[in-house]
């Protein structure tokens, strides 16, 4: 069986789609899957053994990226084509079954929108995949002999970023309670710049940010006792690993993009969703939620 799975350009949305992909793989264990996604999300899918090909395609003017993808897929007869981008591409491919997620904003969580394509109840939660080598690397960097606090103080736009000094205060408080801080952020100079104030204020923190394969990032996060971070792709990766995860929300919509995972939760700045400034979220609120997350029995698959 050949499955084409067209998913998101951004990392967070791609992670949200992994629950559906995992369910399809459970139903069709012999399937060979081709994943098409944005370049930043490509390494999320590469460690999955049933994914035989990852096509990373970048948006081009006049939607020419869809033509590029069509050229790479048109020679295959697909048994199932899943399009989470709402394009018309699959109608130009030979496919026995097509499932297309229509665009436009709809109420409710994005996880539920994706699952609705196959009428899945309960909604499958996101997952991550890592290679054995990536897991060994993670165990070397973050041995379980310590309790690690994963911090993700960046995001793709400034309105979603909780003030760096508050991350520092939370980290210093939890460090006195036995957690050692580890910083995560994405690739590129802008991500490093956003993380720098926290790096400067926490000189003893382990810096694991930058250009790492997502499978390795997932393995590293899996070694941690708690994740605290802004609404970002890293937040969704952490939640998908099933470690205790606390997402911080301001003007972004938790009702749509709350982290999905067995041990995931979030806190929101007070005010109207979609406009509430994230600096309305206090250190005390985040600390209380973090301690609650740590005190709850951890659930496993």
UniProtKB/TrEMBL annotation:
Keyword Transport carried by entry: no
An annotated GO cellular component: cytosol
GO BP terms, alphabetized: lipopolysaccharide core region biosynthetic process
GO molecular function, one term: ADP-heptose-lipopolysaccharide heptosyltransferase activity
Superkingdom in the source lineage: Bacteria
CDD domains: GT9_LPS_heptosyltransferase (cd03789)
Keywords: Glycosyltransferase, Transferase
Protein name: Glycosyltransferase family 9 protein
């Amino acid at each position: 069986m050949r499955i084409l799975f067209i998913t998101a350009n951004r990392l967070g949305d791609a992670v949200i789609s992994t629950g559906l992909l995992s369910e399809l793989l459970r139903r069709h264990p012999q399937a060979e899957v081709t994943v098409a996604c944005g370049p930043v999300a490509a390494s999320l899918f590469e460690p999955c053994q049933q994914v035989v090909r990852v096509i990373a395609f970048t948006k081009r003017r006049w939607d020419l990226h869809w033509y590029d993808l069509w050229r790479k897929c048109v020679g295959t007869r697909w048994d199932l084509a899943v399009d989470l981008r709402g394009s018309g591409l699959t109608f130009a491919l030979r496919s026995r079954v097509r499932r297309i997620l229509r665009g436009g904003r709809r109420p409710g969580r994005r996880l539920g929108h994706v699952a609705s394509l196959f009428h899945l109840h309960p909604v499958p939660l996101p997952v991550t995949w890592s290679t054995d080598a990536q897991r060994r690397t993670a165990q070397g960097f973050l041995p379980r002999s310590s309790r690690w606090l994963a911090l993700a103080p960046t995001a793709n736009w400034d309105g979603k970023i909780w003030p760096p000094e508050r991350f520092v205060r939370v980290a210093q408080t939890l460090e006195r309670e036995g957690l050692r801080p580890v910083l995560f952020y994405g690739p590129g100079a802008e991500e490093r710049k956003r993380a720098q104030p926290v790096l400067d204020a926490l000189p003893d923190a382990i810096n694991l940010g930058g250009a790492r394969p997502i499978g390795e990032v997932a393995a590293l996060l899996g070694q941690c006792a708690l994740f605290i971070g802004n609404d970002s792709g890293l937040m969704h990766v952490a939640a998908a690993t099933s470690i205790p995860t606390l997402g911080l929300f301001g003007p972004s919509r938790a009702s749509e993009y709350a982290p999905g995972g067995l041990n995931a939760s979030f806190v929101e700045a007070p005010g109207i969703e979609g406009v509430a400034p994230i600096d309305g979220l206090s250190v005390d609120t985040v600390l209380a939620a973090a301690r609650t997350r740590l005190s709850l029995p951890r659930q496993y698959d």
